[in-house]
Amino acid sequence: MTWTAPDVDRQRAPLVADERTMLEGWLDFHRQTLLTQCAGLTAEQLRTASVEPSKLTLLGLVRHCAFVERYWFRQQFARLDVPPLYATEAQPDRDFDDLDGADPAADLGTLRAEIELARQAVAGRSLDDTFVSRRDNDISLRWVYLHMIEEYARHNGHADLIRERLDGTTGE
User: How many domains does the chain have?
Assistant: First the structure.
């Protein structure tokens, strides 16, 4: 039997809530949207670049989002000493580019794990808590949430186009 990416139970973001609940709800909605765009596709389809001349793939987007989850929530905000995912000095875009030997099931698992670890890294922390960025700027946890919502929303637009080209499925 051919492996396919698992289905996702995507939950809508709340329409009325406090700020933290709203930010978490929208980020979770966009996280689940990316996973929904992958649901039902084979490993080969996830590796397929379908909007020429771009090499962008759904699997590359999954790997990139796992990378940014780790980077912004754990490495930057929580200051945890964890190595980067996928990227190296020699290949900074390896999350997008080095897919021939990639294992989509493992990469989807990595994204899910990074999402959970991101939640743990910010649990109990205030949206007003800050860290100093590599460019010496103070950045708040609120900014990280907003940035991650923007990051996923932009890439979900890419994912929608890729998915439509793969099998005609459209979404939001």
Answer: 1
